[in-house]
Write a structure and sequence with these properties.
With about 120 residues, the chain is mainly alpha-helical. Helix content is about 85%, strand content about 0%.
């Protein structure tokens, strides 16, 4: 495999990975926000509230850290410099982001379900 093909492949894979880490990070923050709203409205008790925060916030932080790590490694490897690498990265990001946006409404509805 040529260096150019490998750079394009890696750029696309990093695009998918960073998009997924971004989605997971924001989902964790949204879950925490939903737990706060549900608790303030009295729909969940303290035990459920703390349980939701203990699962949502570490996942958000870990995913954000992974995303930063991917970007740092990507830049350190010297990738993202050419238009082809940037396009491959973009093409990796788009499908994952679209998949998230299509299901976002249903995801948010489940976050605000006290029984979940």
């Amino acid at each position: 495999m040529s260096d150019i093909a490998l750079a394009l492949l890696v750029s696309g894979m990093v695009g998918v990975a960073t998009a997924d880490a971004f989605v997971q990070s924001w989902t964790g923050l949204l879950r925490a926000a939903a737990a706060i709203v549900l608790r303030r409205r009295g729909h969940i008790d303290w035990r459920v509230f703390l349980s939701r925060l203990r699962s949502a916030l570490p996942m958000a932080a870990l995913s954000a850290l992974v995303m930063v790590l991917f970007f740092a490694l990507y830049a350190r490897a010297g990738l993202g410099q050419t238009e082809g690498e940037q396009l491959a990265f973009f093409l990796g990001v788009v499908p994952r982001t679209i998949f998230f946006l299509v299901g976002a409404s249903r995801l948010i509805d489940t976050m605000f379900d006290p029984a979940e």
